[in-house]
Amino acid sequence: MSAPQLAALARTSEPQAMLRRFLALDAVITTGNGLAYLAASGPLGRFLGLDQGLLLGLGAFLALYGVGVGILATRNSPPVLPVRAVIEANVAWAAVSLIALAAWLSPTVAGAVWIPLQAVTVGGFAALQYAALRATRA
């Protein structure tokens, strides 16, 4: 992705602001997803065809992870190593989600749509964050 494309997405041409915005978007969506899993693990589990306990565990992890990413997003100049850790965690999450869908999950139709959709979203966050991080170093 080119710098002008990133700037258009982030609505700024300042690389640090781009990075912070992509981290903040990730944090808001991840924390919201985690809180939804925590608050409605039973109904969501039935709807998606996933175990309630799995959603509770994922919800707790995602809520805490999202808060951590949010804290990172508040830094004027987010440190490179934690940003790389977020990018790598997002890539791993996307990959494991797709592997789990293919290898051991048996979701409903809604779950079979939701799992790849969230994997692509998280992978997209990783790509945007990586591109913005590279722009900060250029």
| Main beta-sheet strand count, sense and barrel state | none
Quick one: overall form?
elongated
Summed up, the domain count is 1
Rg calculated over all Cα atoms: 16 Å
Would you write up a description of this structure?
- With 138 residues, the chain is an all-alpha fold.
- It has one domain.
- The chain is built from six helices and no strands.
- Helix 3 packs across helix 4.
- The longest helix is centred in the C-terminal third of the chain and has 29 residues.
- It is elongated.
- The two termini are 14 Å apart.
- The relative contact order is 0.17.
- The model has no long low-confidence stretch (mean pLDDT 92).
Summed up:
The chain is mainly α and 138 residues long. Helix content is 84%, strand content 0%. The longest helix has 29 residues.
Features:
138 residues
Q: What's the layout of helices and strands?
A:
Layout (H helix, E strand, L loop, with lengths): L2 H8 L4 H25 L1 H8 L3 H22 L6 H24 L5 H29 L1
Helix pairs in contact: 1-2, 2-4, 2-6, 3-4, 5-6
